[in-house]
Amino acid sequence: MLTAPASDFGLKLRLTLLVLGCGGVKELSGRFHAVNPRTHFDLERAQKWLQGRATPRSAEVYEDWAKVLQTRQSAGWLASCTVEAFLDELHRLFGIPPETLLDRVRLHAHPPGPSAGRSGSAHGYLCGDYACYSLAWSPYFRGQLIRGALGIDVAAGRTRALAATYREHLLGRTVEFRGEVLIGGRTLHIDLREPGTSQPLLISLGLSGPPASALCGVMSGSIVLGPDPQPSATRFVMVRVPGAPDASNRYFEPTQEAVARDLAALGLKLPDAEHADALVRRFLFPEDAAALMQVSAAEHARLTLAFDQGYLEEPRPVPARVDAE
Questions:
Q1: Among 252, 152, 155, 259, which Cα is nearest to 203's?
Q2: In contact, 40 and 54? CB cutoff 8 Å
Q3: Are 202 and 92 in contact (CB under 8 A)?
Q4: Do 98 and 137 reside in the same domain of the chain?
Q5: What is the DSSP letter of 307?
Q6: pLDDT digits (tens), the chain, 325 positions
Q7: How far is Cα of residue 276 from the mean position of the Cα atoms in its chain?
Q8: What proportions of the chain, in percent to the nearest 5, are helix, strand and coil?
Q9: Does residue 112 share a domain with residue 129?
Q10: Domain contains 221
Q11: Is residue 317 domain-resident?
């Protein structure tokens, strides 16, 4: 029989759940059943294993575990290796630094149960600092990129939820938005508000698994720097970086390798920076889709004028404004 200290096994299993991006024990169990339909990995026992209260009695569980991780290490090695050695192996397999994994696993000391598939704690691996790239909305910087900074962390007083702060630097001042991180299926939504004005900003992204090195999607809101607060939307890319990039937030021209140079200055080392740079610019400036969408005050006026005529020629009751009560 293979044996391992229960506490070490529990931690190694929680790390497994994290690197695979599983939303809970049920999803992790599905990974085991995918490699072996007759696996001895079941939900009831897995809860005890994750809590460090027991270890599997069947050697097949360790064998299935090796298949789930797609590691060359043996079942016996997985059972007896130290947590440090296991972290090194996960680093080799998934490219996530050991210290990062330990930081993320501490975010949910209590492993999620079968029903916790969409809880914030199951996605603690998203926590960290990101450099963000999108098209400038301001008419004064048309055609340029704006580099913002976004940080995701555990929501204050809510260990199973995540919160985000997004910042941009506009003409000598920092504009900050704060809000909640919402997970819906395989998408991530960041619902932000500017403190003081409550001006909204919404970022919707595809949800990446660990290490969440890059996410892309769209950002929508209204112009902050311009003569009119035009409703706007743009493609949006966020890239995980070693530290908070707030100090270098700015506008810049989307020239070749400009993004790569920016990321290098932030301490991010990429095996093929030129290729990554091209992918970001290609996503932000697609040939077959709109990269930037804005609605001008003139367009809004023309549309409402056309429909207002129907009410003016044949008066109908108009709902009272809420703020008039």
A1: 152
A2: no
A3: no
A4: no
A5: H
A6: 444 555 688 889 888 888 887 767 888 888 899 999 999 988 888 888 877 778 888 889 999 999 999 999 999 999 889 999 999 999 888 888 888 777 666 654 433 333 333 334 468 788 889 999 999 999 999 999 999 999 998 887 666 789 999 999 988 889 999 999 999 888 999 999 999 888 999 999 999 877 788 999 999 999 988 888 889 999 999 999 988 899 999 999 999 999 999 999 998 888 899 999 999 999 999 988 888 998 988 888 899 988 888 777 766 666 666 554 4
A7: 18
A8: 40, 25, 35
A9: no
A10: yes
A11: no
Nearest Cα neighbor of 237 from 260, 208, 216 is: 216
Structure tokens at 23: 């939303």
How many residues does this entry show for the chain?
A: 325
Q: Count of domains in the chain?
A: 2
- Residue 226 lies in domain: 124-296
E-assigned strand segments in the chain: 128-135, 145-155, 158-170, 173-184, 187-193, 200-206, 214-222, 231-241, 250-252, 292-294
Q: Which residues make Cβ contacts (< 8 Å) with residue 72, sequence separation at least 6?
A: none
Q: Return the exposure string of 91-103: e unless at least 16 CB atoms fall within 10 Å of the residue's CB, then b.
A: beebebebebbee
Reduced to 3 states (helix: H, G, I; strand: E, B; else coil), residue 74 is coil
Pairing relation of β-strands 128-135 and 231-241?
antiparallel
Query: What is Dmax (Cα atoms) for the chain?
Result: 87
- Looking at the structure, do residues 89 and 201 belong to the same domain, yes or no? no
Task: State how far the Cα of 7 lies from the Cα of 286, in Å rounded to an integer.
Answer: 50
Chain center to CA of 301: 37
Residue 31 in any domain: the answer is yes
CATH of the domain at 146: 2.40.128.120
Report yes or no: 265 and 248 within 8 Å, Cβ to Cβ: yes
| Whole-angstrom distance, CA of residue 220 vs CA of residue 233 | 4
175: Cβ–Cβ under 8 A, 6 or more apart, which residues?
167, 168, 169, 194, 224
38: number of Cβ within 10 Å: 7
Asked whether residue 164 is domain-assigned, the answer is: yes
